[in-house]
Design brief:
4 helices; seven-stranded antiparallel sheet; about 200 residues; alpha+beta
């Protein structure tokens, strides 16, 4: 009886492992929004990790989270490390590419509660309203594949992205309103004698 029970459990486990192995090897999570602010304000906000506490959807999860800034103050080479509670874990972000007012690519390294390395990008497109696309992509290890069986990771991450983009929109639109408009150009003085013979 015990042998049959163990054999049954083994079959279930093997079946689950085989099913997990068929899950997608890679993932892409993407959300976008439009912001009534010029690309340069949005880019400056994203390219400086010191600004992230003002809009990141994860900072509110642990007010006591430890933060460390290294490398370049902003743009390519900037490094941001965090260490917090079980909700935010521990990790590091490094800006690997920063095209002014256009594109930012970040190497995202999770250290705890699990290890993973992904790529996060922000694409900024000007228009009547500036479009911002936030994307994260990477490879699914066995653990993440297994987690995906029980949780909708795309929705979980996507919901966080939407919260972050909403806060980014509010923040950068407020910054745009605070910037004084350019002073009107004064017309050159008219010479009353011009053209007089």
């Amino acid at each position: 009886m015990v042998k049959k029970l163990l054999a049954g459990v083994a079959v279930v486990i093997l079946g689950f492992v085989a099913f997990v192995a068929t899950r997608p090897a890679e993932f892409v999570y993407l959300r976008k929004t439009t912001i009534s602010a010029p690309p340069e304000i949005i880019f400056a906000t994203l390219a400086d990790f010191h600004n992230w506490a003002d809009w990141s959807p994860w900072d509110d999860m642990d007010p006591k989270m430890e933060r460390k800034y290294e490398g370049s103050p902003t743009g390519q080479g900037a490094i941001y490390s965090w260490k917090g509670n079980d909700k935010v874990g521990e990790g590091r972000m490094t800006i690997t590419e920063a095209r002014p007012n256009d594109f930012i690519s970040i190497k995202l390294e999770f250290l705890k509660p699990f290890e993973a390395t992904n790529t996060t990008t922000f694409t900024i497109t000007p228009g009547p309203a500036t479009e911002v696309v936030w994307k994260m992509e990477g490879k699914n290890a066995f653990v993440s594949k297994a987690a995906g069986v029980f949780m909708n990771m795309e929705k979980m991450i996507g919901d966080d992205f939407e919260k972050g983009l909403a806060k980014l929109k509010t923040l950068t639109e407020a910054k745009a309103k605070a910037v004084p408009p350019p002073a009107p150009m004064e017309a050159p003085p008219v010479d009353a004698d011009a053209g007089t013979p």
